[in-house]
Amino acid sequence: MKYSFYAALMLSLISYIFYKSIIMFLVLLPFCFLYPKIKKKDLITERKRRLLTEFKEAIMILSSLLNAGYSLENSVKESLVELRLLYEKDNLIIKEFEYICQLIYMNISVERAFDDLAYRSRCEDIRSFAKVLRIAKRSGGELESIIAHTVGVIGDKVRIKEEIITMTAAKRFEQKVMNIFPLLIVLYIDLSSPGFFNIMYTTIIGRVCMSFGLAVYLLAIYISKRLLNIEV
Q1: What is the CATH number of domain 52-161?
Q2: Domain map (residue ranges) of the chain
Q3: Model's pTM, two decimal places?
Q4: Each residue's pLDDT tens digit, 26-66
Q5: For 14-40, b where at least 16 C-beta lie within 10 A, e where not — what string?
Q6: Which residue windows are transmembrane per the record (predicted)?
């Protein structure tokens, strides 16, 4: 409901600037209910990024405890204690590790618990860690060194992602400003010089030009968003 309301406000502004027509606003109003689905993808991406960043810290703690001589099960339990000192109790990783500890208490193997986390999170790095953990437990190899190497690889990858986000933060802010700037320019001219754009709203050619301008405007927003969406 919140994002539908935001979309309705934005649509009212677009309808006024490009068409000055209540009828067009009512015609386009159903599209407001599509915006929450688009926004949902962004929220999922952000949630995955936050979970992965916290997961990196968790497995680093887990690896250090394994190297200190703890068993895998006890390492997970002790990791939860350390995570509670780092994060607030409602953080994603704390909830996930609490759930993993509950599964271990129910005699479910650690590998299956991390497999469950990988399946639910749909994060490639978490899935890779769970797969390596399962293979290492089955093969009976040097669990500590295998986990330490995996943690190092995942940590480097997550660190690169965080650096990219930090380096592009200014550009992302500029993108948000530039998205709204053209609308503000047209709105300013229209309010400061009444009637300046009347021909664009009262003739067929004018309406076609405004519709074309709207299409180009939306395309520019889409392209700018894709350019800053850098995958590692």
Answers
A1: 1.20.81
A2: 52-161
A3: 0.75
A4: 888 888 888 888 888 888 888 888 898 889 888 889 888 88
A5: bbbbbbbeeebbeebeeebeebeeeee
A6: 6-35, 177-197, 203-223
